[in-house]
Amino acid sequence: MAELPDIKGKTALVTGASSGIGMEFAFQLAALGCNLVIVARNEEALKIVRKEITEQYPVEVTVIAADLTQEQAVEKLFRDMVQNKKQIEILINNAGVGVFGEFQNTSWQKELGMLRLDILSVVQLTKLFLPPMLYHKSGYILFVSSVAAFQPCPLYATYAASKSFIQNFGEALAFELSDTPISVTVLAPGVTSTHFHATAGQPLTSFQKMSMMDSRSVVSEGIRALLNKRTSVIPGWGNKILIFIERFLPRKLSTWFAYKFMK
Ligand SMILES: NC(=O)c1ccc[n+]([C@@H]2O[C@H](COP(=O)([O-])OP(=O)(O)OC[C@H]3O[C@@H](n4cnc5c(N)ncnc54)[C@H](OP(=O)(O)O)[C@@H]3O)[C@@H](O)[C@H]2O)c1
């Protein structure tokens, strides 16, 4: 197997690092010697993550408490990085939430917050952090999408559509940047054991509980793909096979399967 590039000493910004997949990214990148900027709303949780990481690894961890759904939050984050002369070479666009339920019954405020976080903040972060990467001729960008991105997903109608946006946006950007030193990777996990489902209001079925992956395996596949400059990766064999088969199904049938999987 080819040796992976050394990212020791680079600075990675990880959104949604106070729990779940984002927190795992922070730990695994720190283990590879990266300094970190970790972002989420819960400052106390971020400080605990910083303490645990710095006790284990000789890296610098900066905590930024920010609600990325708020107007100006992304711009402020970018300005802070510029003012503190932090050159972000790895951007992990991970923060995200879901809203579970029939669209006719979901709360508009929750939908709006989700769309702002899962789509707008991600596009804006990328818009702001990409030019310095191009200037310095060095950068890795990772988007956290979902297997829900690959078909319509009743009961997660808007969330799945927002992940289709991220999947397509990320893959298109990877293509546009293919002649530059910047690489773009889209990671599309299946059901993973985090706070995501409780926050979204989704009761997990026994099958989902049985087949769910842990964040550690999801993130290690993500980091391997990132460092290998792969455009897209679906972690776990079960998820890979599922999405492969789905390509051959009529759209209506894959929508029905997605619905059945959720119930
Ligand atoms: N778990 C799954 O089954 C699964 C499957 C496919 C894809 N994903 C994707 O994986 C990503 C990470 O989710 P997770 O599973 O790790 O869930 P999680 O444990 O709930 O983590 C979500 C992270 O996003 C942060 N966040 C939420 N709202 C925010 C806001 N307004 N501003 C800034 N940060 C915010 C949370 O921190 P605070 O609450 O402190 O702000 C937390 O750190 C998401 O993009 C999700 O769509 C998850």
What layout of secondary structure does this protein have?
Blueprint: E1 11-15, H1 20-31, E2 35-40, H2 43-56, E3 61-65, H3 73-83, E4 88-93, H4 108-136, E5 139-144, H5 157-176, E6 182-187, H6 196-200, H7 206-211, H8 215-227, E7 232-233, H9 237-246, H10 251-262
Parallel strand pairs: 1-2, 1-4, 2-3, 4-5, 5-6, 6-7
Helix pairs in contact: 1-8, 4-5
NADP nicotinamide-adenine-dinucleotide phosphate is lined by residues 16-22, 40-42, 45, 67-69, 94-98, 117, 144, 146, 189, 191-192, 194-196, 199.
Report on this model:
With 263 residues, the chain is an alpha/beta fold. The protein has a single domain (11-262), classed as Rossmann fold (3-Layer(aba) Sandwich). It is built from 10 helices and 7 strands. The chain has a 7-stranded parallel sheet, with helices on both faces. Strand 1 (11-15), helix 1 (20-31) and strand 2 form a beta-alpha-beta unit. Helix 1 (20-31) crosses helix 8 and helix 4 packs parallel to helix 5. The model has no long low-confidence stretch (mean pLDDT 97). Bound molecules: NADP nicotinamide-adenine-dinucleotide phosphate. Residues 16-22, 40-42, 45, 67-69, 94-98, 117, 144, 146, 189, 191-192, 194-196, 199 line the site of NADP nicotinamide-adenine-dinucleotide phosphate.
* Silhouette: globular
- Give every kind of bound small molecule, once each: NADP nicotinamide-adenine-dinucleotide phosphate
The CATH topology label is Rossmann fold
* Fourth-tier CATH superfamily name: NAD(P)-binding Rossmann-like Domain
Outline the biggest β-sheet: 7 strands, parallel
**What is the CA–CA distance across the termini?**
41 Å
Write down the secondary-structure element order: EHEHEHEHEHEHHHEHH
Treating each run of at least 4 consecutive H or I residues as one helix, how many helices?
A: 10
CATH class: Alpha Beta
Strand order of the largest sheet: 3-2-1-4-5-6-7
Q: What is the strand tally?
A: 7
CATH architecture: 3-Layer(aba) Sandwich
Per DSSP, what share of the residues sits in E-state strands of 2 or more residues? Answer: 5-15%
Total number of domains: 1
